[in-house]
Amino acid sequence: MDSGPSWTLIERHDGRPSLRSRVINRAERAFVRPYMDHIDFNDPRDMAKLARVDRVARRLRPARGTAVEPVSLGDFDAEWVHGRGVPESRSDKVVLYFHGGGWVFMGPGTHRRMLTCISRAARSPVLSVAYRMMPQVSFHAEIGDCLTAYRWLLAAGVAPADVAVAGDSAGGHLAFAMVLRARAEGLPMPGCIVALAPCLDLDLTTKLSHPNSRTDSIISPRWMASLHRAFLSELDTSDPAISPIHADLRGLCPVMLTVSATELLVGDSERMAERLAAAQVPHVLAVWTRQSHVFQQAGNVRPEAKASIAAIGAFIKDPMTYIGSSQPPSLTRHPG
Length: 336
Prior knowledge:
The protein has helices at about 20-35, 45-60, 110-120, 140-155, 170-185, 205-210, 220-230, 265-280, 305-315, 320-325; strands spanning about 10-15, 65-70, 75-80, 95-100, 125-130, 165-170, 190-195, 255-260, 285-290. By secondary structure, the protein is α/β, with parallel strands linked by helices. The longest helix has 19 residues, at about 20-35. The radius of gyration is 18 Å and the shape is globular. It starts with 7 loop residues before the first strand and ends in a 12-residue tail after the last helix.
């Protein structure tokens, strides 16, 4: 695929975080990070607790004006999310979304409110995929489920160029891994990839010693090391099918990466942006100061989350116009 001229758009959102962001960051550091630190992924009781998170979240009422429709994709489910005012048509541009959660927990329920915001910003329906997760299936089978969802959209008549593949954290990894596997199997490229704080290199060496291990309000080296020991230690992290950071990226569709400057996974996005530039893939790297991991989850509360989601929506609508547009206020723009 000829994705057009090579452009790199670097957005640095500096400045003092909003009061709401500072309060949320403190609460996450006080309650979320300590809880995550004590999860034993080899303990069935802890895994059962994690499994309940999405089941409970699915019972919550969607945001006003949101339409949610369940879908069966055979061995797993998905749901359509239409934000308020988003047309019912699914024959035009759609977002194919893979949730985060370390490849082992969370789901459409935990992400429904954020995806409602993304749907409204992009003016497009979102297909949120409840792919099967470890330990129920293998790591490779998770990627396979994501590819099945992409094939399902294409079979339903959605043009590849009208599919925006997106995900956060582990789901950001799956977005890249699925597109790379689709390309390897001869399927057409989607219109773009949007990855929110993705984990793109499963070799944890640099992450575990990164200075942001002290500033990330959610993810700690202890949590990542525990997850790796339980589920990822047998994988060849140098394999591009496992760590997309090592893949041949030439001809990839346009990409948006968005990440916090103070989170543990910032290096993955920065390195991927360098690799995309070398491969002449049009891309955006948006770096936000002192935000938490996947801060867009607080899209209805955090001003920074609202601004980031608005940018994500604009990128999904027209990636190349977004990348080639005039310099937005307070951003730094560099042509590739």
